[in-house]
Predict the 3D structure of the following.
Amino acid sequence: VIHEANVSRGTFYNYFNSLDEVLIAIGQELNNQMTTDILPVYDVLTQPRQRVAVAFRLFMVRALLDPQWAGFVTRVDAWPHTTLVAEYMARDLQNGHDSGDFRIDLIDAATDFLMGASAHGIQAIRQGVDSPNRYMNASVRMMLSSLGCNAQACDEGVAFSVTYLRSWANGELTATRPAWAMDMDSDGARQLLAYD
């Protein structure tokens, strides 16, 4: 790391005590960058169920398109409450609670629960699942169910996340795509956004 960063050992240890701390910092930064990357397509949504369904699915889609990224962000310590993803997630959960869309006892607990589910979903996609599409659909459905949504609302959230992101991948939305999402218009990526 010192060699690649072209810094002295002393400079490295001014900022980090170990390689593990570097990996944590990288994971947190990649989480923040991912959140910033998806804002053009995610932040225009106003309904809490749609926002959480789209964001939750997008993190798994990114894992499929960019396994190297997924390797860094699957560390549990890459998801502290100070990251942008935690801030946006907590805000969406609070708005959903306030609107009556979500039945949540404690926003902090729900945020922790969903961040853990996100990290493990990303890890599973990275390691390989039999049907990524079905896995993502089931994950989005369970996530919405954990927030107290009924079966119909869960199904609607899954369907919306697929059709909305398919429109984004097809260029039907004006929202820009970050570099990692440029392959979303390929046939293989489109198949990832099919509703099983």
Summary: The radius of gyration is 17 Å. The mean pLDDT is 80. The CA atoms of residues 33 and 84 lie 9 Å apart. The longest helix spans residues 19-42.
